[in-house]
Design goal:
There is one protein chain. The protein has 555 residues and is of the alpha/beta class. It is built from 21 helices and 11 strands. The strands form 2 sheets. The chain has a 6-stranded mixed sheet with strand order 1-2-11-10-8-9, with helices on both faces. The longest helix is centred in the middle third of the chain and has 28 residues. The structure holds 6-O-phosphono-beta-D-fructofuranose. 6-O-phosphono-beta-D-fructofuranose binds next to loops.
Length: 555
């Protein structure tokens, strides 16, 4: 569904009026501030100096409280960073995106995922189209829930990849407490048959609904899995089962979906980027899982965050502050990654979701004009839910040679009845931020009497092994509870943060040309691996490594 009329320009008109971050006076001032105060700012001293630090550096956004006080900034740093945002025209760039300017210039598209969660009457672009599809999708979702109540459907298989998988998979898991009790959800994304085979093996076709989700309806992985699912269905379903009642498509390419034989399709538009598409019909499994009323709460939370982003002064605008911290850490401190540690098992897929959102958006090395950037962009984003991460990679976070800012997500109320477990979980979350910041001095370590060292091991050396440098930064985001509304707000917060950091860096956060080369080469290699192909095993024209590996795999 192609609803964007505006042509592509070399640089979006609003962005073109503003300088890239490194060409501003604020950038030079930040450099000076970093050398004089920033590099050596010690969090322990900063807290000792200023009893109001927590209050001064904590911020409220809809559904999300953000404690930034354990970051290596002070109010002066935030003022300098604010100057950078002003000089880069961040507010103007934000407003241009929100009103539908072609923010994605390399693909000639507007970027309007915010329109998908705007309520009727809010005056968002494409309101009529958006609400027509949304109403139809929600009626379908509620009908599926009714079929589940009647025992007609038990399982939903969602087939998609990247933005057509990660959002729904992450959100359905996060909203487990709100899921329809008689429906199980399965997400298949990988072209590896080990993904789909065990899913289908356990299902009855006659009680399964298959959702094929692909913005383009051409993605190799999704099309291949969709074909496998269709063949399974035809073979397994009892005679007379209507395929049309068991397959549904979600795509901007309605023709291709029809060509595949899907008669029930929900569309969306090219101005919805894949990694921000869970608010569109791509979110169908979420709507089926939680029902239409809660789906609207989910959108409501995101819309509330949109308004915060659009209207709150930049100095208190949480997505903007997080983006400015990203610039501060990436470009001044030189930190290369950020770890996200959700202390809620429901958010287990959030790190994977954020990897696509952030790294596919801002993993770019040229600016909007195509000039090579002289500074770094997206950090590596990685993580695991707490407390599991503590028993895996937190060793490195505390004592490794790299400083990795950590983003903790704490949820005040649990959806289960195990108050003791929840208290332990929250204690661990707070303790990790505290430990990263406070560290442990060599003197304190030497004063301890560790029981385990080998006999005769030098006590001073042992103390150094047991020393924590501390002063390691973290942010803590707090939700009251993990609900459709708070999840919507949290995701929208991250989306806006990614846009804001991309706008400061002067890049296009909305294309993903970096995934194309591998796709093309895989297409060229496939006939050399396929059974029955005349070119099977052919290594002509390949580099010796790829040729050697191919021979090894074909032998
Ligand atoms: O990985 C590249 C990408 O285009 C993502 O941006 C997108 O989310 C994913 O592939 C899936 O694409 P589609 O929804 O068209 O199948």
């Amino acid at each position: 569904m192609n609803a964007t009329a505006a042509p592509a320009g070399a640089v979006p008109p609003t962005a073109a009026r503003w300088p890239r971050c490194d060409r501003t006076r604020a950038w030079a001032a930040l450099q000076g501030h970093f050398e004089a105060h920033g590099r050596d700012l010690d969090l322990r001293e900063a807290f000792a100096r200023d009893p109001q630090r927590f209050a001064a550096l904590s911020f409220e956004a809809p559904e999300v409280f953000a404690d930034l006080s354990k970051n290596r900034v002070d109010l002066a740093t935030l003022r300098f960073l604010g100057d950078l945002a002003d000089e880069c025209g961040l507010a103007a760039q934000r407003d241009a995106m929100l009103r539908g300017e072609v923010a994605n210039a390399t693909e000639g598209r507007a970027v309007l995922h915010t329109a998908l969660r705007a309520p009727r009457g809010a005056g968002a672009p494409f309101e009529a189209e958006v609400h027509a599809v949304q109403d139809a999708m929600l009626a379908f979702a509620d009908d599926v829930r009714a079929r589940a109540d009647a025992g007609e459907l038990t399982d939903i298989v969602h087939i998609g990849i990247g933005g057509s998988d990660l959002g729904p998979a992450m959100a359905v898991r996060a909203l487990e407490a709100f899921r329809h009790p008689r429906l199980r959800f399965h997400f298949v994304s990988n072209v590896d048959g080990h993904d789909i085979a065990p899913v289908l093996a356990g299902l009855a076709a006659a009680r399964t609904l298959v959702v094929i989700a692909s913005k383009t309806f051409t993605t190799q992985e999704t099309m291949a899995n969709a074909a496998v699912a269709r063949a399974w269905f035809v073979q397994q379903a009892p005679a007379g089962t209507e395929v049309a009642r068991h397959f549904v498509g979600v795509t901007t390419n309605l023709e291709a979906a029809a060509g595949f034989g899907i008669t029930r399709t929900f569309g969306f538009w090219d101005w919805v980027g894949g990694r921000c598409s869970l608010w569109s019909a791509i979110g169908l499994p979420i709507a089926i899982a939680i029902g239409s009323a809660r789906w609207r709460e989910f959108l409501g939370g995101a819309h509330a965050m949109d308004q915060h982003f659009a209207r709150t002064p930049l100095a208190r605008n949480v997505p903007v502050l997080l983006a400015l911290l990203d610039v501060w850490y990436r470009n001044f401190h030189g930190f290369t990654s950020r770890s996200v540690a959700p202390y809620h098992q429901g958010l287990a897929r959030l790190p994977a979701y954020l990897q696509q959102l952030e790294m596919e958006s801002n993993g770019k090395r040229v600016d909007l004009a195509g000039d090579t950037l002289p500074f770094a962009t997206s950090p590596v984003v990685w993580g695991e839910p707490g407390t599991n991460g503590q028993h895996a990679f937190f060793q490195m976070l505390h004592q490794g040679t790299d400083v990795v800012p950590v983003e903790f997500i704490a949820v005040k109320h649990a959806a289960h009845g195990h108050a003791d477990l929840h208290a332990k979980l929250l204690a661990n979350c707070l303790a990790q931020g505290q430990a990263l910041m406070l560290g442990k001095s060599a003197e304190a370590a030497a004063a301890e009497h560790p029981p385990t060292a080998a006999a005769g091991f030098d006590r001073a050396a042992l103390a150094r092994h047991r020393t924590f440098p501390g002063n390691r930064p973290s942010t803590t985001l707090v939700l009251d509870a993990l609900t459709p509304r708070s999840l919507g707000a949290l995701i929208a917060l991250y989306e806006h943060r990614v846009f804001a950091s991309g706008a400061l860096w002067g890049i296009n956060s909305f294309d993903q040309w970096g995934v194309e080369l591998g796709k093309a080469l895989a297409g060229e290699l496939l006939p050399r691996l396929e059974a029955g192909s005349a070119r099977r095993g052919d290594t002509a024209g390949l580099d010796s490594s790829t040729a050697g590996l191919l021979r090894r795999l074909m032998s």
